[in-house]
Amino acid sequence: MSLIHLRSATTSFVAVNDGDALPIVLHWGARLPDEVTEAELLAAMRPVVPHSSTDEVMPRRLLPMPVDGWRLRPTLAGSYADGTGFAPQFRCGAVESSDTALRIVAVADGAALAVETQYTMHPDGLLEIGATLHHQGSGSYRVDALETSVPLPMDAVELLDLTGRWCRERSPQRLDLGMGTWLRESRHGRTGHDGPLALCAGDPGFSFRRGRVWAIHLAWSGDSRVYAERSPVGRAQLGAGELLGAGEVILKGGESYRAPTLFAAYSERGLDGVSAAFHGYVRSRPSHPTTPRPVLLNTWEAVYFDHRLDVLTALADKAADAGIERFVLDDGWFGSRRHDGQGLGDWFVSEDLWPDGLTPLIDHVRSRGMEFGIWVEPEMANPDSDLVRAHPDWVLKVPGREPPLWRRQQVIDLANPDCYEHILGRLDALLRDHEIAYVKWDHNRDLIDVAHDGHAAVRGQTLAVYALLDELRRRHPGVEFETCASGGGRVDLGILARTDRLWASDTIDAIERQQINLWTSLVIPPELIGAHIGGPHSHTTGRVSSFAMRAASALFWHLGVEWNVAELRESEMAQLQRAVAWHKEHRTLLHTGEVVRPDTPNRNALVHGVVAPDRSAAVFSYAQLATDVTEVAGTVRLDGLDPEAVYAVRPAEIGGLPTCQQMTWPEWVDHPGTRIRGSVLMTVGLSLPNVHPEQAILIELERV
Fold first, then answer.
1. pLDDT tens, residue by residue, 342-400
2. 692 φ, ψ (degrees, to nearest 5)
3. Where are the beta strands (DSSP E) in 122-170?
């Protein structure tokens, strides 16, 4: 036997090479010493053989399968056309390993089937797992599932994942992991507003800052399956894979199927450690957008479909006055699109609206020092469109019936080569013929009852969307892309490998966005999460919010404005200018620092912050969402600071201080710049004002 030990500063993944058999997985979790041996691990971990069991211990192999005595979900499910090959026994064909990478080829059925698996341990502790099934035999092999899983200790008995709906994405839910399977399946044809984002298991009561946590995320934008399992025989695991439709993957000899990548993170310091692992990986990608992230204005909630040149140029002028750096023209610029029931799919600049094309608006925007961006929804079309009238066969559907309409639109079949080339050609021409720096890419409906050439189509559609984005990025490398899917309906690292920003939700209600942004950042770093300052009245909730609250809910993320700034009073413009200027001053910190979410006993408040990589500065937000039973807010520990440093502490008065239920202010508010040692702030905490509900206060810290 020989030890395989992948490791980072915080995490170890350990397996034992077992000769001809596949390696035995011993550990995924806390960092083990470099000198640890297989003998001591086996001695420490070998379980007893209970009654009513196999006569020998059946270990967890790298690719757990029923033939190994594995009774939880297996790695591979499939068969040949005659029903054979349903229970392959894999043997080790090749192993290559280092301190940070493992590649193994497992072969079965006389080498007719082979699974090539690659494990990569990234510097911040994120474990990346990829698996590809190769079929080298005769006949056809139907793949029902190729899923990747990681082991859990039996004492990881509490689960946390996320659910939601349109305008209420990323809502946390917790439950005990008893005996059995907790299974989440997405059948939306996209990740889904109710997507789990990350499935986390850990110590009872684990929180943002406390407890051991094991977490997984599937980097896939189509249908998916994510699960946690625990059994009375002493086994537990987290796993995920693509949810394949009937017959979606049938491999002929020489063909392969690559499963979506699974990412797994372990933390000994709660959910913040999980986020640190994901954020470190995402920020290390060569494709990660550089800072500073431009502040943008999106025209949707400002003017909706009112696309008149004079209206938009006036809006652009005021946006520039406010310090905006990117102007994004939303839905309504193309074809017959005057409302959301017609014209979608006709990606030609409307001659009625724009007799001289988009160039006059683009030139004006650029003359004011701003970049120009544009909205598209290339995967969809209205039945009332020239595209569908000319090509009804391009609608993604089962032959002989129409899928139900959703937002008065249908999905078009991008796996159809003619349809794909048409959409690629139109978008390529749009970007080639105009000075466009940014594309907001929308996706406003689920895929229901869809087929390509009579066969299940979600996988093919997802891969076609990936290919379309990849090709457009290749042709136009300077253009940034935002992923939007009715807001947060497609949030995953698969689509984010091809985009530079995500629209976390169609609601910009400040209270709703406090939760949505916070939980989206469990996996996604702040600089990729779009958050906008809207008008006082939210059109998705009807809530009226103060400017200070609206700004506080947007300033930490990739800041935008979605408000008719052409109609602002002088005092409102001054507030917006201050907010934009404050964000620009602090955005390098906000978009490169470590996200810190201090635990607070106040269930009606949210606290989060960002600490600079060198811990020289930090910004925290305290948002009171509703009243609390306690009369005094108390203190909150500001974690992540340098305990030896002394910090000047002050409020950030972007829209004025919040109103409060109190007679006096805390010292640091009354005397901005009050100096407090980091160890005190981290251990004793900082006294908070009794903020009225639906208000927030921002706290700035600077090392002195």
1. 999 999 999 999 999 999 999 999 999 999 999 999 999 999 999 999 999 999 999 99
2. -65, 155
3. 127-135, 140-146, 148-151, 158-163
Phi, psi of 634, rounded to the nearest 5 degrees:
80, -155
Distance CA 94, CA 117 (A): 10
Return the HEC string of 556-589.
CCEEEEECCHHHCCHHHHHHHHHHHHHHHHHHHH
- Measured CA distances, 93 to 105, 129, 389 (Å): 5, 18, 54
- From the list 150, 157, 139, the residue with the least C-alpha distance to 15 is 150
Query: At 594, which helix (H) or strand (E)?
Result: strand 594-596
Looking at the predicted structure, is the pLDDT value of residue 1 above 80?
no
The whole-number pLDDT of residue 288 equals: 96
DSSP string, 439-494: EEE---S---S-EETTEE-HHHHHHHHHHHHHHHHHH-TT-EEEE-BTTBSS-STT
Q: How far apart are CA 144 and CA 88, in angstroms?
A: 14
Check if the beta carbon of residue 323 is closer than 8 Å to that of residue 577: yes
Measured CA to CA in angstroms, residue 361 lies from 37, 295, 320, 339, 364 at distances of 67, 19, 14, 21, 5
Q: What is the pLDDT of residue 338?
A: 94
Per-residue tokens: 692: 């009225």
Write down the residue that tokens 């290559």 correspond to.
96
Round the average pLDDT of the chain to a whole number and report it.
Answer: 96
Per-residue pLDDT tens over the stretch 148-179 = 999 999 999 999 999 999 999 999 999 999 99
In sequence order, the β-bridge partners of residue 80 are 141
Contact 242, 224 (CB under 8 A): yes
Cα atoms in the Cβ-side hemisphere of radius 13 Å centred on 501: 28
Taking the model in full, what pTM does it have?
Answer: 0.97
Q: Active-site positions?
A: 442, 506
**Environment class of 448 (CB within 10 Å of its CB; exposed 0-12, middle 13-18, buried 19+):** middle
DSSP per residue over 9-44, as a string? SSEEEEEEE-TTSPPEEEEEEEPPPTT--HHHHHHH
474, 445, 476: which is closest to 461 by C-alpha? Answer: 445
**pLDDT (tens digit per residue) in 484-513:** 999 999 999 999 999 999 999 999 999 999
Per-residue confidence band for 2, with pLDDT thresholds at 50, 70 and 90: confident
Sign of CA dihedral 462, 464, 469, 473: positive
Buried b (16+ CB within 10 A) or exposed e, 379-388: bbbbbebbbb
Helix (H) or strand (E) holding 684: none
First to last CA, the chain: 55
Q: How far apart are CA 206 and CA 174, in angstroms?
A: 10
Q: Whole-angstrom Cα distance, residue 222 to residue 219?
A: 10
The answer to whether the beta carbons of residues 23 and 61 sit under 8 Å apart is: yes
Helices 570-592 and 309-322: crossing angle in degrees, nearest 10, is: 60
Question: 50-66: per-residue pLDDT in tens?
Answer: 888 888 888 899 999 99
Q: Which amino acid is at 317?
A: D
Distance CA 611, CA 234 (A): 40
